Amino acid sequence: TAPTAPTIPPTDLITHITRFAAALREAGVAIALGDEIDAAGSLVHIDLTDRGEVRLALRTSLKVEHRAWPLFDHLFGLHWRPGGPPTPPRDSQRPTNRRAPRTWPGHGNPLSELARTIAQHGRVGPLDDADTTGTDTGRPGYSPRALLRRKSFEQCTDDELAAMERLLAQVARKLATRRSRRLVPAPAGPAIDLRRSFRRSLARDGELIDLARRTRAVELPRMVVLCDTSGSMDPYSRLLLTFVLSLGKVARRTETFAFNTSLTRLTPWITAGNVAATLSRFAREVEDWSGGTRIGRCLAAFVHDYLRETVTGGTSVLIFSDGLDRGDTGALEQALLAIRRRARRVIWLNPLMGDPRYRPEARGMRTALPHVDHLVPAHNLESLERLVDLL
After folding, report:
1. At what angle do helices 51-61 and 69-79 cross, to 10 degrees?
2. Inter-residue contact 20 to 80 (CB < 8 Å)
3. Distance CA 376, CA 66 (A)
4. Are 74 and 126 in contact (CB under 8 A)?
5. pLDDT digit string, tens, across residues 98-111
6. How far is CA 25 from the centre of its chain?
7. What is the DSSP letter of 362?
8. Of 20, 43, 54, 150, which residue is the least packed, with the fewest Cβ within 10 Å?
9. Which band of pLDDT confidence, cut at 50, 70 and 90, is reported for residue 247?
């Protein structure tokens, strides 16, 4: 289940958003007054008990730049926590001017220092309750699970791989069962269905006793996943394929393929069996596993053999690859053009983007960039969690 947001009375919601926006400004994030109004309006249309949904709605309506997302996420964790927002300062503690204090009572470092820390080191605190579990490391905001979420797949020890595989399965389940914006009738839910409620009242002489409810429908996403299993992807292949395998198990409308110098359809092999055994079978039966890469030729084969069957206007196509292509970039471009014309969106997930020095200068990536909707990292658990927002 999704982490719950704090219960805030409607009369306090505007004040709470204002305080949160002020904290963001003090940390150097540009927030306009109109954005605060948009943020208040956005919360009317969502499930306020879903903390992840509240976070996404606020981040979108406040127009937070991508580079400021880690800072936003950390401040969101402080201001919108299950235990309630930080206690407002008493009158004697309030600043004499109209600006928010740089240090909220009980929260240590000034926000400007927090912004610098996050800019240097990335996220410094948990996003949800799950991050706060585990053995205390002596540093606020860190737990073994939180650290594992940010650890690159290529650096995981054998002991960490099993834990990482379990976490990847959880992310896959969340991705496969995310809720859409569409509201449907339900026995219980956060939204009141006024039309059905009034219809019920007619049978009781106009007395509105039983309120009809609506909740957001569970959306079963339609996806096609193509995973690069060439030698250059070896440091990431096991965990990425674990994620892809878990996704295929829980998302029934997912088609899965592996490619290197040729294309292999993996969907028929994905069963409820042991993940390690399935991966071993993949390694045995996928031709040229850990070998070279012909991305263009493989995607062209996908277009010729499977595109019409697997990709519709509602399909998201996910391509896991470092883009190190030794083949014909013309074939790659033509294949991506064909996929883009039919798909809802094309997302290229590149594990090399975990290195801040990385630039998409390889021939394959330069060719692909104009034809994908998103180029995102895929080097750790945290990067894969962001797929939920993209989809």
Report:
1. 130
2. yes
3. 12
4. no
5. 333 333 333 333 34
6. 25
7. S
8. 150
9. confident
Q: CB–CB of 373/348 below 8 Å?
A: no
Distances (CA, A) of 197 to 187, 191, 215, 216: 12, 11, 14, 18
Residues 6+ apart with CB under 8 A from 205: none
Report whether pLDDT(281) > 70.
yes
Amino acid at 271: T
- State which H helix or E strand residue 218 sits in: strand 213-218
Residue type, 2: A
Residue by residue, DSSP assigns 14-79 as: HHHHHHHHHHHHHTT----HHHHHHHHHHHTTS-TT-HHHHHHHHHHHTT--GGGHHHHHHHHHHH
Residue 322 has pLDDT above 90, yes or no: yes
Contact yes or no for 361/148 (Cβ under 8 A): no
Check whether domain 222-390 has CATH 3.40.50.410, yes or no:
yes
Residue 264 amino acid letter: T
pTM reported for the whole predicted model:
0.58
Tokens representing 287 are: 């031709």
Please tell me the distance from the alpha carbon of residue 239 to that of residue 245, in angstroms, as a whole number. 10
Q: How far, in Å, are 113, 229, 297, 339, 344 from residue 360 at the CA level?
A: 32, 19, 20, 21, 24
Q: Strand 191-192 and strand 374-377: pairing?
A: unpaired
- The C-alpha atoms of residue 172 and residue 250 are separated, in whole angstroms, by 7
Both structure tokens of 146: 């939180």
Q: How many CA atoms lie within 13 A of 130 on its CB side?
A: 15
Task: For residue 5, count CB atoms less than 10 angstroms from its CB and return exposed for 0-12, middle for 13-18, buried for 19 or more.
Answer: buried
Q: Are 259 and 228 in contact (CB under 8 A)?
A: yes
Q: Let me know: does 256 contact 282? Beta carbons within 8 Å.
A: no
How is 251-310 classified by DSSP, letter by letter? -TTEEEEEESSSEEE-GGG--SS-HHHHHHHHHHHSTTTTS---HHHHHHHHHHHTHHHH
The answer to whether 96 touches 44, Cβ cutoff 8 Å, is: no
Average pLDDT for residues 250-261, to the nearest whole number? 87
